[in-house]
Amino acid sequence: MHEHLSDALASDAKDIDRLKLDVERAQPPLLRLASSDDPAHVAALQRAGKMLKKECQLAAKDDFTSHRLLTERAVAESLVVAAAALQRTETSLTHSREIAAEACAAADAHEADLRERIDACGDAAASRDRLLTTRRGLLAALAQRRRLVDDAKRKLRETNDDVVAMTRRGGVVQAEHSRFSAQLEEARAVAAQKGVELPEDGGASARSAAAARAKKAGEACRALGEELAVLNRVTPWRLDGLSGGGDTLSLRVGRLFRIALDVGTGAGRVTLQPCSGVTPQGGVAFAAAVAGAPRAWNETSENARNGHLAAVLQSIVPGLRRAEATLGEAEACRDAFPRITKMRCTAGGGLELSFTDFNMERKVDVALDFSRGAYPRGKLSPRVAVVYHGTGPPLPSAATMEAAIDRVPSGACGRRLFGICRLMDWIVARGEEGAFLHWSPYDPVGVVNADP
After folding, report:
1. What is the DSSP string of 334-351?
2. How far is CA 348 from CA 198, 282, 286, in A?
3. Which among 57, 354, 374, 419 is most buried, taking Cβ atoms within 10 Å?
4. Is residue 306 assigned to a domain?
């Protein structure tokens, strides 16, 4: 029994030792140290915990540092983008301030002009009031009233005379009606004696046939009128009518010119037609000088083109239309450039311009010669005069500005005057700053590439 128990205890002791070895191999060292009661193991476990804590802190600090570095880089990039946007905004604000200053100057000049006109009107009204307060003024007012009353009486007498004349005319018409009625009855009696049968409808069929023929002729005339309207919209001229027994064509070119052409020979003449509301001041005479009108030619002249009317019109009409288009271009220049304070057209084909900068107190006058087809590709013979130098950047000499005007090209659409006005506006605003080579007459309004 005792031996059996001893063997069983020895076997259990071996199993316990084997199980301890399996447990030690399965457990981590720190867990084994934590389950131990040895003070040395506890101290080693504490040191290991401190080291683990320190490593965790260092890892967390490295992670935080990397995230902070990425954040700072993103903030720096956004600050660079914001700085560029602010720079662009500053440039835009600078240009806006310049444009606003020019607009304010123009508005102040316009306001001063309006105030002068209002003061002039007020002075005229005050003078009229003062005139009425005097004895002579009252007498003048009474004389004017009497003249008005006399005019009214004269018109009343004329109206009465017209009424009397119309009454007399009514009696004459009644007498003629009675006479025609008697003649009609006499004709019917004669027809009855001769045995002529009158139409049963009393001539209604003849009248309806005449009305049908008149309607057909009216429709034909309307069709011809529609064709003529289409032709007038397509061609650069409008047919006004025929004269001289149908041998002379009367054509209208734009608002200003009229052409009379002989159908057989090609001879003709160009004249001005009456019109109103043409701007700038003196524009009609200016356009006439540019187009070389009025003028005439006979059948032996080169302009007659051997009687070929289409060739005559092709040689004459473009110059007339270009002369009238020059007025529109001048008005567009005055609207586009506020520094143009004066624009005057002369009867000899000259255009006078004044460029004024109120902020720098400077003024430059320019005179151009458009006569006899010099515009847009010929020599305009510019004459520049500096009236006031003012302050700011120094102005080039008059000869330099004249040479610069001569170098302005005409462009694809013949807008040479627009380019000249842009050049002078730039010179008045910036003087000799930059060079003419860095400027283009085709830049948008308000944009000058002074710095390449």
Report:
1. HHH-TTEEEEEE-TTSEE
2. 75, 10, 6
3. 419
4. yes
Residue 209 structural domain: 200-234
What's the predicted TM-score (pTM) here?
A: 0.46
Number of folded domains that form the chain: 4
Euclidean distance between the first and the last CA atom of the chain, given in angstroms as a whole number? 118
* Percent of the chain that is helix, strand, coil (3-state, to 5): 65, 10, 25
326 lies in a domain? no
Half-sphere exposure at residue 36, Cβ-oriented, CA atoms within 13 angstroms: 17
Give the DSSP per-residue string, 231-273: HHHHSSSEEEEEETTTTEEEEEETTTEEEEEETTT--EEEEE-
pLDDT at 434: 38
In angstroms, rounded to a whole number, what is the distance separating the alpha carbons of residues 195 and 187? 12
Angle at the Cα of 417 (from 416 to 421), degrees rounded to 5? 120
Do the beta carbons of residue 290 and residue 371 sit within 8 Å?
A: yes
Query: Under a CB-based contact definition with an 8 Å cutoff, are residues 303 and 313 in contact?
Result: no
- Summarised one tens digit per residue, pLDDT across range 9-18 is 888 888 877 8
Peptide bond connecting 294 to the previous residue in cis, omega within 30 degrees of 0: yes
Residue ranges in the chain modelled with pLDDT below 70? 1-2, 22-36, 125, 127-138, 195-204, 206, 221, 224-235, 244-246, 411-414, 433-452
Cα distance between residue 151 and residue 145, in whole Å: 10
177's tokens = 């009606």
Q: Is residue 221 assigned to a domain?
A: yes
Structure tokens at 383: 């004459």
Distance CA 411, CA 76 (A): 49
Both tokens of 139, joined, read 């007498």
129-141 core/surface letters (b: 16 or more CB in 10 A; e: else): eeeeeeeeeeeee
What confidence tens digit (pLDDT) does each residue in 20-32 have? 776 666 556 656 6
